[in-house]
């Protein structure tokens, strides 16, 4: 019996992570890395909802002191989405490797591993990168069974409306061979009616940005119904215009036209770059092609739920490899400065141009940061949603 056990292969790190209890992922990761690469310290840091800090997960649901999400070695790993090796400062001979935790383009945080100096060779860093990816998938999956990692992301309590809105989101990023998406919401801890959603298939990407009327719990309930109706219609396999029609009927049946949701619906053909669009309200769409920035003018149709059985028509435009599309809700383009000018008319265009070379995640965040700077406050008066999509396109090889 002992001989048989000795001949059995050692379970992979990935299989051991999958087998562990959801609340024990951090301790399991620490044990595995200690045994396999001689790790002296392992820290899991999760990005907070505002993407402003990374919070070390210690004794869940508590966290250690947060570190900036965009500065220092940890922040560089998070922003660049590449491993960063922090060399010793003289007080210790160990190195710290900071590894991004990402699931299909959705940035969750950073895994920091302290190693002996002779253990930071490229092969070990590559193994750690693969381990961090496996851990990220398990952290994302664990959210179905435990609240611990969601609690660890919070610097303060969410309002009920914000809780509902965050649960609706597919993530804050998505990456495929044909495109990369980054998205941002503010105010992160009190958001009410803004939402973004996407779904991809073998040949298409569907992307929606919704701005529910009102504020607080009423706006959240309205948006929840709108997003649920759009998903239900999308999963029925019907056209984009019919998706809008069915969601419109669902909202009108519930609110009788007293509440409505402005929505932009986009459906990308991954082969051709043709985009079908329905503009049902206020979200605005911009395209950056090379050094040129333009607003894509779509036919403004009625918001969802304003009238009974509103017909919706699709329009089409085309994206080319290298194009960037930015969708902003009314909380961004409609925000007014003291002199009466809107953020969308001046500062938005300046911010879009200034962030052209940034990754979509950072560009989306920078647009909202520019809005905050424009008004001189970290707390916005209304919801602001930004979705940034870089179009790569499908090659003949793909």
Overview of this protein structure:
It is a single chain. The protein has twelve helices and 17 strands. The protein has helices at residues 2-7, 13-19, 25-37, 72-80, 122-142, 148-152, 160-168, 216-235, 240-255, 330-333, 347-354, 360-375, and strands at residues 41-47, 53-57, 67-68, 84-86, 95-103, 106-115, 173-175, 179-186, 194-200, 204-212, 261-269, 274-280, 284-289, 292-295, 315-318, 324-328, 384-391. It has a six-stranded antiparallel beta sheet, with helices on both faces. The protein has a six-stranded antiparallel beta sheet with strand order 7-8-17-16-13-14. The radius of gyration is 23 Å and the shape is globular. The chain starts with a helix and ends in a 7-residue tail after the last strand.
Tally of DSSP β-strands: 17
* Share of residues in strands: 25-35%
What Rg do the Cα atoms give? Answer: 23 Å
- Looking across the biggest beta sheet, what order are the strands in? 3-2-1-6-5-4
Q: Termini, distance in Å?
A: 50 Å
* Overall residue-averaged pLDDT value: 90
Structural class based on helices, strands and sheet pairing? alpha+beta
In DSSP terms, counting alpha (H) and pi (I) runs of 4 or more, how many helices? 12
The main sheet comes to: 6 strands, antiparallel
Shape label: globular
The helix/strand series, from N terminus to C terminus, equals HHHEEEHEEEHHHEEEEHHEEEEEEHHHE
Oligomer: single chain
Ranges where pLDDT stays below 50 over 5 or more residues in a row are: none
Helix content, binned percent: 25-40%
Protein name: Phosphatase
Pfam families: SpoIIE (PF07228)
Organism: Streptomyces asoensis
Keywords: Hydrolase
């Amino acid at each position: 019996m002992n001989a048989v056990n000795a001949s059995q292969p050692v379970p992979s790190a990935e299989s051991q992570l999958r087998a562990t209890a959801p609340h024990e992922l951090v301790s399991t990761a620490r044990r595995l890395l200690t045994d396999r690469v001689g790790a002296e310290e392992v820290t899991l840091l999760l990005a907070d909802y505002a993407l402003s800090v990374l919070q070390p997960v210690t004794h869940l649901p508590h966290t250690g002191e947060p570190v900036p999400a965009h500065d220092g070695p940890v922040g560089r790993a998070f922003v660049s989405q590449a491993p960063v090796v922090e060399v010793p400062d003289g007080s210790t001979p160990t190195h710290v490797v900071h590894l991004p935790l990402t699931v299909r383009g959705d940035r969750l945080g950073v895994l920091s591993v302290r190693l002996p100096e002779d253990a930071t060779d490229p092969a070990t860093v590559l193994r750690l990168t693969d381990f961090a990816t496996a851990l990220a998938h398990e952290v994302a999956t664990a959210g179905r069974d435990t609240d611990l990692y969601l609690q660890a992301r919070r610097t303060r309590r969410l309002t009920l409306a914000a809780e509902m809105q965050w649960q609706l989101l597919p993530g804050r990023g998505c990456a495929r061979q044909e495109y990369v998406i980054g998205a941002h919401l503010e105010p992160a801890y009190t958001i009410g009616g803004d939402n973004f959603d996407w779904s991809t298939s073998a040949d298409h990407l569907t992307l929606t940005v919704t701005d529910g009327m009102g504020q607080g719990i009423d706006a959240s309930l309205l948006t929840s119904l709108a997003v649920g109706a759009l998903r239900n219609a999308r999963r029925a396999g019907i056209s984009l215009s019919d998706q809008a029609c069915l969601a419109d009927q669902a909202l009108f049946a519930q609110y009788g036209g007293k509440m409505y949701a402005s929505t932009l619906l986009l459906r990308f053909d991954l082969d051709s770059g043709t985009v079908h669009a329905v503009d049902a309200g206020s979200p605005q769409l911009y395209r950056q092609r090379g050094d040129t920035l333009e607003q894509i003018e779509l036919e403004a149709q009625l918001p969802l739920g304003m009238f009974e059985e509103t017909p919706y028509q699709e329009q089409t435009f085309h994206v080319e490899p290298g194009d960037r599309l930015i969708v902003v809700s009314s909380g961004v383009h409609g925000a007014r400065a003291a002199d009466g000018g809107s953020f969308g008319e001046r500062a938005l265009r300046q911010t879009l141009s200034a962030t052209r070379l940034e990754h979509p995640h950072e560009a989306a965040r920078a647009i909202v940061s520019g809005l905050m700077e424009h008004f001189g406050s970290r707390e916005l008066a209304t919801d602001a949603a930004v979705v940034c999509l870089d179009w790569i396109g499908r090659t003949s090889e793909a």
